[in-house]
Description:
10 helices; alpha+beta; 17 strands
Amino acid sequence: xxxxxxxEPGRTQRHVDATDADATDVAFSALLEDSAEELYEQAPxxxxxxxxxxxxxxxxxxxxxxxGLSRRQVVGRMRFPDLLTVGGKLYYETHLAPLLQMQGExxxxxxxxxxxxxxxxxxxxxxxxKTSEGGEPMLVRTTIFDARDRRAYETExxxxxxxxxxxxxxxxxxxxxxxxxxxxxxxxxxxxxLPVVPGLEAGSHYHxxxxxxxxxxxxxxxxxxxxxxxxxxGDVCGKGPQAAAVTSLTRYTLRAAALHDADPVKVLTTLNxxxxxxxxxxxxRYCTAIFGVLRPGSDHVSVHLASGGHPAAxxxxxxxxxxxxxxxxxxxxxxxPQAQFTSAHAQLSAGDTLLLYTDGLTEARTGPSxxxxxxxxxxxxxxxxxxxxxxxxxxxxxxxxxxxxxxxDDDTALLALGMPAPLPTPDRGDRT
Length: 432
């Protein structure tokens, strides 16, 4: 059995807890408003009650202070729309009032009130309709929240967005001007059009992978005299202005060397010497290329070409076959002071087409697994095309390049040369 002395600590603790609770209640009571009326009048937002026609029946002190008006000026004398700017009045009459009639409430509506000293004050308005027991509308209760900080924040966001949009427009305009300049420069590195060669048909195409970068692919067809024509196609390593400079040097060197001595191996040897000496003291610059000479005849076109590290040319025959013209062992042009180049000969009969291309075509990524398109696929594709001449083959290959989409990430140059097939002789038949 517990004695009185053993119960004393428990009673003392309960007494302390009760004393603390009383003190807490007193502290909280001191922080609370004295009455609901004071809470209404000094609330951190505006309150007002209006009749159904908008006449203000009750308004709190907070809103009166915002407006810079006295209660006598407002209650029974002004309508809620009178507190609003012209735009707010129009919105109240056309949207807010009808919405209250139909739905009985409207919330979060951004308006401007005419605050003290004629200033516009952005606010957020929420209204709710009070009805009688019979459902008849009696009055509208409205709360008005100060939205100046929010409006300032939104204005700053809008200003930042406009600044970003302006910067984006300027960047796009600068990019368009750059792309135009690059396109003009790119065109200057290619022949405006291929010359007309008697007894020969020619076609070409240049696919630009990115309008923001200068490519290093090039091709040309030009007269050498004595019924001979020079042609070349190649690819400079890299992109951009430096690659364009190498491309320009390469094109003019090939043309000049061919006029001096048109032997394909000697032409590429001259180009190798020029490129290596020009860039030996700085960053190495090199290219791959095929250079050749055409000699049209009465029933065929003879082809003599040499390759320096470039993909082999492809011949589409009039009988529907297609195969590569091997040039093994040809080295990169400009990489070493001495380089070996491989030559080859071929004859193009009526309906045959010689195709030269850069590796953007065969290195395109295709299919779900993004595999390289490859040489075999190109040969198969070419053999499947009707032997209708160089321009028809270029048109088919152009469509193929387009079908690669984003799998084609490198510039691609195409040059096709061939002897036109004879036109079929119409079968007149026997006339009676």
